[in-house]
Amino acid sequence: QGTIRFEDVRFGYDPDRQILKGISFEVPAGRSIAIVGPSGAGKSTISRLLFRFYDVGSGRITIDGQDISRVTQKSVRSVIGIVPQDTVLFNDTIAYNIRYGRIDASEAEVQRAADLAQIGDFIKSLPHGFQSMVGERGLKLSGGEKQRVAVARTILKAPPILVLDEATSALDTHTEKDIQSALDLVSKNRTTLTIAHRLSTVISADEIIVLKAGVIVERGSHADLLGQN
Ligand code: ADP
Ligand code: ADP
């Protein structure tokens, strides 16, 4: 479960400016793909279309053969977990933020996910620096800490499809390694789409796509691409 296909996808936020100019690729269930390329190439736009923030201009996106524009946004999102570049958190406890997306999870499950993402000591606190009227501590989380909350949420949700959008970019190298290993744990046997600036961060992907100005200019394994450069 979790095969993604993009079939000649074209899209622009404005009708007179195409951002994606005919993108096709497939990620078989359980495999991983990385999309690399310069800033502005359209990488995040691919993840936004997959998550149905927008509908494609032409072409189609399918998950397990189902055209995602023909099912509800909610059902598309239920099979996808995103660790975005900028995680926006609710002004509620970190535990609440982690549980969001799997509200049936037990406290022990939330704690375990938080521990794996190394945010386990903070889960009773609030993320934006304000203390609550019932006395919950207010911490002002850094970008990297917010990302760890997103990682914990994804660990807990354990969806068939994972989208990692520069998932470890806001972290220092030491934390990045730890978080990467937590992410490897969740991405094992799941379809994974990783968005990155640099080839060096996506060595383990089964296939790498190089996107420039909305066009796929190269594709292959990490070794293939290095051989050509
Ligand atoms: P990348 O992830 O490769 O850096 P994006 O997919 O975020 O690129 O953006 C691709 C292009 O689309 C950029 O030129 C960006 O300015 C433009 N863009 C992104 N979001 C919007 C938006 N909401 N409205 C209009 N243009 C946008
Ligand atoms: P629902 O519709 O079931 O209430 P959402 O569709 O809002 O849930 O969100 C489902 C998942 O998508 C959550 O796990 C959340 O992390 C993620 N998500 C929601 N909004 C965004 C966003 N703007 N950027 C990235 N991820 C988001």
TrEMBL record:
Q: Which domain of life is it from?
A: Bacteria
* Domain ABC transporter per the UniProt entry, residue ranges: 4-229
Q: Which family is it part of?
A: Belongs to the ABC transporter superfamily.
Designated name of the protein: ABC transporter ATP-binding protein/permease
Q: Which organism is it from?
A: Fulvimarina uroteuthidis
Q: Where in the cell is it found?
A: Cell membrane
